[in-house]
Design goal:
single chain, alpha+beta, seven-stranded mixed β-sheet, 7 strands
Length: 128
């Protein structure tokens, strides 16, 4: 989705969700999900923009973050993705909904290299 698409979703997507990326089949299997598609709920998009100060352009990075980021497992049904690009460091958590088996973005924050390094020391690496 482009920044224009994201803005339209923010403005008119109340009560809905959107597919933001896909994960590899290996990660889908690791989480026990029923699809490789990753969804983001409208209310969490709003929270990301207003509370976490995520720019519309940063949302475009979600597919790269999930495709190329380092992956850690911090708890059951959750994977942490750490990724650095020209904008900075990002910390994204994808979780599998227990009832539906679908994958959702549970966290989308900016982070720092020091916090990313601390997470790498603390949690199990799933993908470098």
């Amino acid at each position: 989705m482009t920044p224009i698409d994201w803005q339209a979703f923010i403005d008119r997507g109340h009560g809905t969700e959107v597919v933001v990326a896909q994960v590899s089949l290996a990660l889908m299997s690791h989480l026990g999900a029923n699809s490789d598609r990753v969804f983001m709920e409208h209310r969490y998009v709003l929270k990301s923009v207003h509370q976490h100060q995520i720019s519309l352009e940063a949302f475009e990075s979600l597919s790269d973050i999930l495709a190329y980021g380092q992956v850690l497992e911090d708890r059951e049904r959750h994977l942490v993705f750490l990724f650095e690009n020209r904008v900075g460091w990002f910390h994204v958590v994808v979780k599998r909904a227990e009832a539906s088996g679908r994958l959702y973005i549970a966290t989308f924050h900016r982070t720092t290299s020091a916090k990313a390094a601390a997470k790498r020391r603390r949690f199990l690496s799933v993908r470098e």
